Amino acid sequence: MKTKKYVKKAKKNLLYVADKEDVVIYSGKGMYLYDIDGNKYLDFVGGWAVTCLGHSSPVISNVLAKQGKRLINSSPIYHNVPMIDFANLLVENTCFSRAFFCTSGSEANEGAIKLARKYGQKFKNGAYKIITLENSFHGRTLAAMSATGKPAFKKLFNPKVPGFVHVKINDIDAMQAAIDDKTCAVMLEPIQGEGGINRAKGKYIRKLRELCDETNIILIFDEIQTGFGRTGKLFGYEHFGAEPDIITLGKGIGGGFPLAAILTKENLNIFEKGEQGGTYTNQPLGAAVGHAVLKEILDKKLHKNADKMGSLIKDELKKLSKTYPIEKIRGKGLMLGFDLKTEIAKELVDTCFKNRVLINSPRPKTIRLIPPLIVKEKHVKKMIKRLAKSLDEILTQSEQ
Ligand SMILES: *Cc1c(COP(=O)(O)O)cnc(C)c1O
Fold this sequence. Notes:
By secondary structure, the chain is of the alpha/beta class. The chain has twelve helices and 17 strands. Helix 3 (58-70) packs antiparallel against helix 9 (284-300), helix 10 (302-320) packs parallel to helix 12 and helix 11 packs across helix 12. The chain is globular, with a radius of gyration of 21 Å. The structure holds pyridoxal-5'-phosphate (PLP). Residues 104-106, 109, 137-139, 189, 193, 222, 224-225, 250-251 line the site of pyridoxal-5'-phosphate. The site of pyridoxal-5'-phosphate has 14 residues, from helix 5.
């Protein structure tokens, strides 16, 4: 039992930020993670929608080795081959024409917020306000926390960055009422992830697009969780028949390697010299990984697999809901959620963990499933079986 010893050290030497399971992960392969004592876990969290190609994918480890031998880092002031190739591949496969690469989702959102404010300064008399949604999640830097509509963030680290207004999802009247002549942008997730898998409706998005055009406001989609095949299409915006002006990407873009991006339409190529940058922006090793990940998704049509496996999981959950207290099964592709009738989500996550399947609970009644895009039918069947077993254990216990 090495776990005890290591956990003790971890608790002694690392800055506390959140509670963790008493487990030390040692390795991963495909759909499975292994702890330091050799226990094997079926992973339906994927590092929070990050490891889209599964764990330790040879696609990623090979490109890391190859590019790592050629060039790990040059400098933001020189061009490099991977950043050019990756930007080109993204432009070819989206409605956008410009890319900027950085290292975390929060950093990408910071950049998008700055770009929106730049637009306000240049074209809208200094308009700076950005409207976001209640229960949204946009990251943990100070501006991203200010943009976030999570109630628990409200009282933290004040004063926040001013200029963020929060309105209800799918309420176009509330949106319209919130817009004034100081508004430069609207930012939202096509499907809210941390907020508990809440979908923006197609009609709402199309109306919102019209509203933004009429009022000369930028529409930003935070696709950090919905991008890179997660929802059954390559990008979340493809579901709506309406295009945003900017998307931010993170999580799946690097398949586990720290990478993020901002994609914009041509008319937003408006940063001036020195206004945006960073030591690790457009960095060759990260860009090489991103390029390989996107190529693999395209070659293997993994977004199609996400769509297919997502439907299968939903069907299986519907069957379970006949005997277990499961309701409100929702989401798209492999970004799925369901509610439990009582607040037992945390208990279910813990019991599933004990039964060697990893799931996630973003809210007290909600379970979220965001497995790697390579998931197969046999994994789904195994997860459902262990989920039912765990529910049995919890429910018989509460009867006693
Ligand atoms: C995870 C996430 C972020 C933050 O990304 P980090 O890489 O953790 O900074 C922002 N927006 C959404 C929608 C996310 O899911």
